[in-house]
Design goal:
Blueprint (H helix, E strand, L loop, with lengths): L2 E4 L4 E4 L5 E4 L5 H9 L1 H8 L8 H5 L4 H7 L2 H12 L5 E8 L2 E6 L13 E3 L5 E6 L2 E6 L4 E6 L4 E6 L13 E6 L9 E6 L6 E7 L4 E2 L3 E3 L13 E4 L2 E5 L4 E6 L4 E6 L10 E7 L5 E7 L2 E7 L7 E8 L14 E6 L4 E6 L2 E6 L5 E4 L10 E4 L5
């Protein structure tokens, strides 16, 4: 409700369309009846259903009136926008096999979507650059294009990379990220970055609202700063981050439109093979997860001081997994930034770790033997 005005004897509600409904004092039978008869008020209540895939279909079975309200495309649009401000469900993972990008579910019934519910066949050679806000970004080096795919809408957007951004497709590494502004479900942005370690690094931003690429953003970074094809990005605190080496992170600031390099924690585990990813720290800033064997270190960067790293904690992951899963080292498969979970392959299956509760969840029907699986986090309204 935009506003609620009360008097000693009457209550007046103003809907978003400006229509006024008057009822008796809250709590009286007349007031309850008025609420049940006002479509705007019922819609506001239904808008607050959980953003799980089963919520709207199950609620639509209550009565014909609810089904009519919930089936309205305008309501479903408001529902998606409302829940974009929170944490969207982690519907599953996308993986690639023989040029086909296929969905694998992660939720339990009744929210579980069928395996292969979303799929995309790209005829061109492609590289997956990332997933975010329900969108996927692919790079086509042969045609020097990127593709933005919206699985829910079934829409593809092919964008030509600006001339001069890539000098040699076979040699110049390109990475990127796709994102939507907060509360927006119509428009998107694409951020591309390239650096071969010899020339200045470049970035360029595309806006679907204007249909244009912005100017090139150039930065002379430290030597040997080289972007890697397909290294997943993390959006945290208004910046996009890519891990570009075992010692460096590339940062693109969305507000200042600038590039910078951040060194990873100098005191993290050394002497053993390890796997790392940028992550969201508590409070929404940038963090860093480093895993060696079954030991996980959680780091956070102190941005309000000198940019130093602080060790937030250490966890022995094998003590949280079921017996038998520690017969072989963990393999990190991916990180879901909005739900703050990381995926690991073990000899007994794939597990999803919530990095706040440290509670592992086994994804029983996902059999993964390779790399390159990407979390799909979005509000789905079937």
């Amino acid at each position: 409700l935009d506003s609620l005005h009360t008097t000693p004897h009457r209550t007046t509600c103003v809907s978003k369309e400006g229509e006024m409904a008057t009822a008796s004092l809250p709590g009286s039978p007349e007031a309850a009846a008025a609420v049940l008869e006002n479509d705007d008020l019922v819609s506001e209540i239904l808008l607050r259903l959980p953003p799980q895939p089963s919520s709207l279909p199950r609620a639509s079975r209550v009565c014909r009136r609810w089904r009519r309200l919930l089936s309205d495309p305008a309501f479903r649009r408001r529902f998606r926008i409302h829940h974009r401000r929170g944490t969207p469900p982690l519907l599953g993972l996308f993986g690639s096999s023989r040029g086909v990008v296929t969905f694998q579910p992660a939720l339990d019934a009744p929210d579980r979507l069928p395996r292969g519910h979303f799929s995309l066949n790209l005829d061109d050679d492609y590289m997956t650059l990332g997933w975010r806000h329900g969108l996927a970004l692919f790079y086509l080096p042969d045609s020097l294009q990127v593709v933005v795919w919206d699985p829910l809408a079934g829409a593809q957007h092919r964008l030509d990379i600006p001339e001069g951004f890539v000098l040699d497709p076979s040699e110049d590494p390109v990475n990127g990220a796709v994102l939507r502004a907060a509360g927006d479900i119509d428009h998107f942005q694409v951020v591309l970055v390239t650096s071969d370690g010899r020339r200045p690094a470049l970035a360029c931003v595309y806006s679907s609202e204007t249909g244009l690429w912005g100017d090139f953003i150039s930065a002379q970074l430290q030597s040997a700063t080289m972007v890697h094809w397909g290294e997943p990005s993390v959006l945290a605190g208004g910046c996009i981050y890519w891990l570009i080496s075992v010692t460096s992170i590339l940062e693109f600031d969305l507000d200042s439109q600038s590039l910078a390099v951040i060194l990873v924690p100098a005191d993290m585990l050394t002497g053993r093979s390890h796997q790392s990813t940028v992550m969201r720290a508590e409070g929404g800033g940038m963090g860093f997860l480093n895993v060696a064997d079954f030991t996980a270190e959680f780091w956070r960067r102190e941005t309000d001081c000198d940019g130093s790293w602080m060790l937030g904690g250490t966890v022995e992951l094998d003590k949280l997994l079921p017996p038998g899963s520690d017969n072989e080292a963990l393999r990190m498969l991916g990180y879901a930034e909005e739900n703050n979970v990381v995926f690991f392959w073990t000899v007994v299956g794939v597990f999803m770790f919530n990095l706040q509760s440290l509670e592992p969840t086994r994804l029983s029907e996902i059999g993964i033997s390779g790399y390159g699986y990407h979390p799909f986090e979005t509000v789905y309204t079937p």
